[in-house]
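Batch manifest line 485
LIGAND: flavin-adenine dinucleotide
JOB: complex structure
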Amino acid sequence: MGKADGFLKYNRELPQARDPKERINDSNEIYTAFPEEKTKQQAARCMDCGVPFCHSGCPLGNLIPDFNDAVYDGEWDRAAQILYSTNNFPEFTGRICPAPCESSCVLAINKPAVAIEHIEKAIAEKSFELGLVKPQPPKHRTGKKVAVIGSGPAGLAAAAQLNQAGHEVHVYDKDDKAGGLLRYGIPDFKLEKWTIDRRLDILKAEGIRFHLGVEIGTDTTIKKLHRKYDAVLVAIGSTKPRLLDIPGNDLKGIHFAMEYLTLHNRRVANEEIPAEIDLHAQDKHVLVIGGGDTGSDCVGTANRHFARSISQLQYRTMPSDTRAPHNPWPEWPMTYSSSSSHDEGCERSWGWLTKEFVGDENGHVTGLKVVELEWKSSREYDEKAGSERILPCDLALIAIGYERPMHDDFQASFDFEFDSRGNFKLQDWQTNIPGIFSAGDACRGQSLVVWAISDGREAARAMDIYLMGASELPSKELSQLVLGS
Ligand code: FAD
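JOB STATUS: finished
ARTIFACT:
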């Protein structure tokens, strides 16, 4: 441990976000540079607790006190070695993870948590700057061939691990560029896309082959891949959007959030968008229905489109600022939170139920009828008499979650089993079809990038064992057993 009293001496400090008025004029990341000395001070706030709850708070089991110590000592090489031992892509998680590790940081019991996410990003960027991240092709090849369907964080993490184990890895994706939701869901102001391209260059140089613009189930079948490869990983995400099943939902101007976000991300990447499918919020009354990351990203994007007004509706009551007794530390806090997109401008309303979209004679949406709710318990509510009103709306963005993976076309090849929510059902990361595995949102439901990377790593190890009988790839469970022993 670098500094015994760092947590008493230094306050939590993070890089400044650019002024909202300025940053909505571009799509670049919103944070400014942070001096190295200050990052070291932030690392010094880590108490190196006897029981580092942050390890288990992090789905990857990141060895947080160890890399904090290395950062405090200015040993970036050591910090990078520790961080990459559990996380393939800290340049992504260091930017967009909601940081469950920080919620379980022991310092967070009575002080602001250690700035773990920022420190992770600093190590990731420093490791590239110092040339520590170089392609490392495996020394030996096993002769086994593996297909990964999906190039989101789960597929990429699994591909990286399987390649390190010496297998020949082929990644298939229906999109024309790799990255999954990192590229086509999450906006550039949270994650600039050069970070994905930089990582893809390393993976390609290590020998991973990408087959883009190939939709499995349409352009070729999963059965063919199963025949051609020794094992297959299904990492197709969970992107079937949940419908807002109310009258008027077929009016023009009502869209799923992902349609809007994908088009915007493509526009920022200078891709041509055909006018007939383009969506823009300029001068419109935008209603974002649903909270969560997707809803908040719509708010940030609509701000960059200079919408006339932006409102976000959630039907639950507004969460409290403090933890409820049944939600103690070190659990993820179910408290009020806002994102940088909200700071840019948005009216947030809680406790409203959507009743019906209303439209004009051209069939275009003009408003949304809502009614205020009185919650009687966490499940039951009454509609408040006389509270009905119509909110103006020219563009409605539905962000109420995702039902399940888009696996319909796979069923023509195999009779896959799914869990009660329609995700791939697994036993040791393997589906009911021998040799076909799954990872990420496809088996977990829409979740987080950090879970996708973790699943990709664990599934890769299970596939390696399936192919070779044993594996030297790391596993979170094993490393925690060693730490706990
Ligand atoms: P995905 O990223 O969905 O990747 C799946 C890939 O499979 C895609 O590239 C897709 O094209 C491909 N594919 C699908 N079907 C086929 C097929 N039949 N053939 C070939 N290829 C196919 N998480 C965070 O941690 N922080 C955030 O800030 C955050 N923000 C988000 C914002 C939005 C708008 C959304 C939608 C999600 C956000 N998430 C966030 C969640 C996170 O992005 C996902 O949990 C994560 O990307 C899941 O990774 P994955 O690899 O399982 O799937």
